[in-house]
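Quarterly update from the structural biology core.
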Amino acid sequence: MIKTSIIILLLILFSTPAFSQEIISDAKIKFDLPNEKWALKSQKEVNGKTLFIYKRDPIQYKRRSIIPNISIITESVNDSADAVTYSIQKRMQAPFNIEKVFTWEDETIKFQNAIGYLAAYEDQYGKHKIYVIHAINNGIGLQFFFDVTEDVFKKVKPEFQATMKSISEIE
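Predicted structure, tokenized:
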């Protein structure tokens, strides 16, 4: 009995429960927001694409309020499209420097029809670290962007990674 109680307690302590499960119905995709600090701030349709913007509560850093965000763009794709070709097309449109490539095979993500990148770029707010995932499901191309300035990346990285690992198909 004591052994069972200890195991249950350890599972509760070391599991990372999701705060909110989000669904992108046309793509039949679901994912979890990591905690109550995240919320959907905007969803809009533009030129046949849907844009979802999730923002985190600000993180204070050297008198600045830094707001990490997760953005998702969905669009219809050709039935013969695959994640690698889709990713190549989208990467040509995005000016970031790739530091690492990942897939489900290295367990950074679980969703199989996807490819991801850890990348960097710089803008007027400074240097950024960004995870980018390109995926295809149910005839829909998805671009996930997990973006924050380099200053607070280490703090938000576990939250980004939890959400990235939770991306899965609705069955």
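Residues 18-169 form a domain with the Protein Transport Mog1p; Chain A fold (CATH 3.40.1000.10).
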